[in-house]
Specification:
It contains 14 helices and 37 strands. It is an alpha+beta fold and about 750 residues long. The chain folds into 3 domains: about 35 residues; about 450 residues, no CATH class; about 120 residues, Immunoglobulin-like. Strands 1, 4, 5, 6, 7, 9, 10, 11 and 15 form a 9-stranded mixed sheet that branches. Helix 2 crosses helix 4. It binds 2-acetamido-2-deoxy-beta-D-glucopyranose (9 copies).
Length: about 750
């Protein structure tokens, strides 16, 4: 593939890209995340008013939440890179949650959003918007953007070609709600700032995560493994934010697990297990508010989850029920595709609920028992680093280097949380002549230099050598560190495996504790932060070349390079020299050659003699608690609803007999509702709304409403009009009620 060419018209470009898309999507891109840990140290710290001790001066703190849900239709969901998995409704909404701390001198912002990963493009657009709004208050160095790694959010917010191909391009209507939602969560936090206190506590959650590449983990040195009881990190770390009266205003936590309880067959936008944990905690603390509303903000952030699955029943061959091959996660009949991990629930909804509930329960317990107040100065350090060009002196005689980005064969195998479509298997250290030949013919052969640099990875895509129509992978990455009292947050631009994360935490702790100002530090890893660069394994795990190693794009010494660059930041913090850190090479902000393969949504049609919002399939007259109500409406394409933030496609309403009014009790953000959008033939579509009646639902008369927009042609002019539909009224009675 030649470098940038602009001779050809858009249609030629699109046609070429469409061909590439077919190749790429069949070859499949699978993407993933991370969370954190620490140490114990008990010093119960009752909230007290600010005393004369200057160290006890409160911080200024603010918390904020904003809807960042994008168009819930047609756009591929970001994560499994399954081209069939396009958005078709809403399971739960996506939110950005922001936390601001200010010590009078320095301000830090931590944001975690219900999104697959923060892309470089998303971060750059957010920083530009913050600059316009706030001047220099919120900047590259003091704003950390992290993602929960849900695999069920709309894609399309990337500027590098590989990700654009798996997203159907750079999709303006998809990135805009993310940028606006993230900025709004910071606005809300900025507007809520007041004196307050922050506490840390930590505990173990043992039943909610499983290592999905134990074979890679076992390749780490035995004496290193012996220091740890588990092959994944089980620690939950919680920061509690209170005002000066001791009233809680927010909670920020980290736990290392992939947000992939919802599997690749789900097509509804969903915040997955970590989003469900937020939902439960916020419902506790904002009992009178609908989901997504109320002042208390509870965030569950990702960490070193690279090899950590929530599907704790483990992988099995779905055709036989027998265990998969341990080394390559394939099945004797059916290969990689049929080796699927699941559990702990009977289906993905129940699994999401159980894992989310476990994490919530542990965090709530820790929140109620804060161990230690965070006090003292805040520090931030940030640099841009050319990750293709880092050399690390590993001993007196040897210097090793990072490589131009490339993905290995096992990348296309996917994982037991979501397999590739083709016959790739994990653990491949030899290429497959069949696929290599196709690759060479279409994309070009990897250079010998890149092959040697990535050894023993057999290269499938030499993305660092592909720059048409834009580079396929980033070269410049963000490394960032913030320190709040005894907690250091390391913002990692990808998915570190368990052991990689442990090594990084140790390195940062060691470097900071070499100074007397930092004792008993808790170092947490904030995963999927700032720019997405796939995985980061240890050198030893890399040798095995399972999915995570094949997706370690800067080569076998990627982790060594991060250890060095993060140590460098930590040293600058310890020596109070962060202002002297050069910013490093700024990442590009591409203005040309971004492409979109998403056509505008066509006009909607409806059955003869019907209107949008008409009920096609009615509710029953009566239900019991625990039943599921379902109603089908004539619908328009949800993409015609434009910016859907802070709106709802669904309400469940209860009748108030005293006032003869209807009160909204659930929306499409509620766990209990499911909004499925079903595209039929001839541009017709239906919305199916389900309400899973919870056991505690009050008896009474209810109805379900659906809101949407339909596009119709008035002559040659498209006209978009809102519509709404309403079900018949139905009764809900207790499940113990018998006739
Ligand atoms: C941010 O908060 C400060 C007060 O802390 C206020 O002066 C400013 O107007 C706020 N900015 C925005 C954009 O809301
Ligand atoms: C996976 O490994 C087993 C041996 O452990 C081997 O028999 C099998 O052929 C491998 N499967 C694939 C698809 O490479
Ligand atoms: C996804 O989960 C559903 C149950 O909710 C199950 O039927 C299906 O087989 C799973 N698919 C995959 C690929 O894990
Ligand atoms: C990164 O480093 C490589 C190797 O030195 C160089 O070719 C490339 O231009 C650099 N990239 C940027 C964006 O500076
Ligand atoms: C330095 O590291 C290399 C690569 O691991 C190793 O081969 C070599 O023996 C080491 N040299 C010394 C002096 O430790
Ligand atoms: C994958 O499929 C192709 C085409 O069917 C075949 O030539 C190739 O040998 C297969 N590779 C493996 C590892 O089975
Ligand atoms: C790589 O090296 C081999 C042997 O040295 C040579 O035949 C081949 O052409 C080289 N390939 C490329 C892409 O440079
Ligand atoms: C539409 O409704 C009218 C009046 O009720 C009726 O005469 C006509 O047959 C209906 N058309 C269809 C296609 O159902
Ligand atoms: C819409 O729902 C009706 C009634 O359930 C069904 O007959 C029809 O096939 C559905 N149409 C589409 C486009 O899904």
């Amino acid at each position: 593939m030649a470098s940038r060419k602009r001779c050809c018209g858009v249609s030629v470009l699109e046609a070429t890209l469409a061909v590439l898309l077919v190749v790429m999507t069949t070859v499949c891109v699978t993407l993933i995340i991370l969370m954190a840990t620490g140490k114990t140290h008990t010093d119960p710290e009752p909230t007290r008013p600010p005393g004369p001790d200057p160290e006890r001066r409160p911080y200024l703190i603010g918390v904020g939440r904003a809807d960042c849900t994008g168009p819930p239709a047609d756009i591929p969901l970001m994560g499994y890179a399954n081209p069939q998995q396009t958005a078709a409704g809403i399971h739960t909404r996506l939110y950005s949650r922001a936390f601001i701390i200010d010590d009078g001198q320095q301000r830090v912002v931590f944001v975690t959003a219900d999104v697959g990963m923060i892309s470089q493009r998303l971060r750059l657009e957010v920083l530009q918007a913050l600059e316009v709004k706030y001047g220099g208050v919120y900047r590259r160095d003091n704003v950390v953007l992290s993602a929960t790694h849900t695999h069920c959010g709309p894609a399309g917010y990337f500027q590098y070609t590989l990700f654009m191909l798996s997203s159907k391009g750079y999709i303006k209507s998809s990135i805009q709600p993310l940028v606006n939602g993230i900025v709004k969560s910071i606005d809300v936090a900025n507007g809520s700032m007041r004196p307050g206190r922050v506490y840390v506590s930590r505990g173990q959650l043992e039943d909610s995560s499983l290592n999905r590449s134990p074979h890679s983990y076992l390749n780490n040195p035995q004496d290193e493994r012996r220091r740890y009881k588990w092959n994944t990190d089980k620690q939950v770390t919680v920061l509690k934010f209170t005002d000066l009266d001791g009233d809680g205003i927010g909670m920020l936590s980290w736990f290392a697990v992939h947000a992939v309880s919802m599997n690749s067959t789900n097509r509804m936008v969903s915040s997955d297990n970590l989003g469900h944990a937020s939902y439960l905690m916020e419902r506790d603390k904002n009992p009178r508010d609908l989901p997504g509303q109320g002042g208390f903000v509870a965030a569950f952030s990702s960490s070193n989850l690279g090899d950590v699955s929530p599907n704790i029943n483990g992988p099995r061959c779905v055709n036989t029920g027998r265990p998969c091959d341990y080394l390559n996660s394939s099945c004797p009949v059916g290969g990689t595709k049929l080796c699927v991990a699941s559990g702990p629930g009977d289906d993905m909804f129940e699994s999401t609920k159980i894992i989310g509930h476990n994490i919530y329960r542990k965090a709530k317990e820790l929140y109620a028992n804060p161990e230690e107040e965070l006090i003292g100065r805040l520090y931030v350090a940030h640099q841009w680093v050319n990750m293709t060009d880092v050399s690390v002196k590993i001993n007196d005689t040897h210097t090793v280097r990072t490589c131009k980005p490339a993905l290995g064969h096992s990348f296309a195998a996917g994982t037991t949380d979501g397999g590739g479509e083709l016959n790739f298997t994990q653990g491949a250290v030899e290429g497959d002549p069949f696929w290599d030949a196709i690759r060479d013919a279409i994309l070009g052969e990897p250079s010998n230099e890149t092959r040697a640099c990535h050894h023993p990875k057999p290269i499938l895509f030499s993305t660092g050598e592909m720059s048409w129509p834009l580079p396929w992978h980033p070269e410049i990455v963000d490394v960032q560190l913030m320190v709040v009292g005894s907690v250091a947050v390391v913002a990692v631009p990808g998915e570190m495996t368990t052991m990689a994360g442990r090594r990084l935490r140790d390195a940062v702790r060691q470097e900071l504790q070499a100074g007397s100002a930092f004792r008993d530090l808790e170092v947490v890893i904030a995963g999927l932060s700032n720019v997405y660069t796939h995985y980061i394994t240890t050198y030893e795990e890399y040798q095995v070349q399972r999915y995570e190693g094949a997706s370690t794009i800067y080569g076998p010494h990627t982790l060594s390079a991060y250890l060095q660059t993060f140590r460098h930041l930590a040293r600058a913090v310890r020596q109070d020299q962060v202002l002297a850190l050069p910013p490093g090479p700024a990442p590009p902000f591409f203005k040309e050659n971004l492409f979109s393969l998403m056509a505008a949504a066509p006009a909607d049609r409806k059955p003869a003699n019907s209107s949008f919002g008409d009920v096609l399939q009615q509710v029953n007259p009566a239900y019991r608690q625990g039943d599921t109500v379902s109603v089908v409406f004539v619908a328009g394409n949800p993409r015609h609803s434009g910016d859907v933030r802070d709106k709802t496609f669904v309400t469940v309403e209860i009748h108030d007999n005293r006032t003869d009014t209807w009160e909204v009790v659930y929306t499409d953000a509620s766990w209990e509702t499911r909004f499925h959008w079903l595209k039929g033939p001839a541009q017709q579509s239906n919305s199916t709304v389900e309400w899973h009646i919870p056991p505690g639902a009050p008896s009474g008369s209810y109805r379900i409403k659906h809101y949407g927009h339909a596009k119709q042609m008035k002559g040659f002019r498209p006209v978009i009009t809102p519509y709404e539909g309403v079900s018949q009224v139905f009764r809900v009675s207790p499940s113990f009620y018998y006739h």
